[in-house]
Amino acid sequence: MADSDNIFTITVDNKDLDLSIRTPDGNDYNKADMVKSRTWFKAVNDGIPTVKQVEETLIKLEIWDDEKQKEVEDIRKEIQDLEYQLTKGNMKIDKGKKLALEIKEKRAKIRELVMERSVYYNDSAEGKAENMHFNTLVSRCLVYNDTNSPYFKDLDDYNKNSNTPTAVWAANRLANVIYGIGREAEKGFVENEFLLKFKLVNDDLQLIDDKENLVDEDGNRVDILGNKVNKDGNVIDDNGRPRDEKGRPIVESKPFLNKEGKAIKEEVFDVTTKMEQAAEVLRNIPKEELAVAAKGVSLQVQNEEVEKGKGSTKESTKKKTEEKEVDLPVSGK
Fold it and tell me: What pLDDT is attached to residue 331?
């Protein structure tokens, strides 16, 4: 029986059916390897560049170079050093928290740097082959929880439906199983183990205070979107002043003054409100009247174009006549 985190429920003919991801076996990997090989050869024959060719191009275009590679390696060494210090302990919790957050920041930096390169690698022959290898495993390992039979008919069926919620869930879940990708895998990182152990983050790895309220790195209370909030959960700015749901200051607004110091009458113009009012007016107009009005506007535009055309014709005729009169010989000479 699959654990609860490994179950995805779908509804077929008004009946709930549970799906789960089983761990790939040798047969699954053999099939996936065959698909991977065929995909690579076809990609190369179709002119898709190999990883080596992609690397040469990235260096030539200065998108990736030895300097960036060295930067990634240096950050990895820094992370390893910080992990060693955090694991060693013998420090106050606040110091440990600071180290843990520093590690998370450096991991994010590596992801940012590597992302620049991986985008191009995914389009290489090897990248396409790896994707098809993974897709093959997903197509075979998403099964009905009660019968263990595959949900997708074959690889083509999965590829055609790869953007559906079911397929997306299956891909994410399998990636977590075989690559250690996902939140569950992140919980095994040294910094997150420390933060979880001392209840400095919740189960979603979000920072919390001792009352389990969401907070930022400085300990300020925040909402799910990261906005600062007061003790009542209302959004505030960095100075503690209230703001509305759109992030605008909540304050009594007084009129602006003219040169004489007198209040200027202002019409508050809310674009959203005006559009809603206009839409409401249109909704209350009978369709027949709208059709007649639209036809009238169309005829008016046509008439204006005709008149404009007539005007242009008259101007053209007048101009030609003037030119013709100029060219006429003067009689009596």
Answer: 42
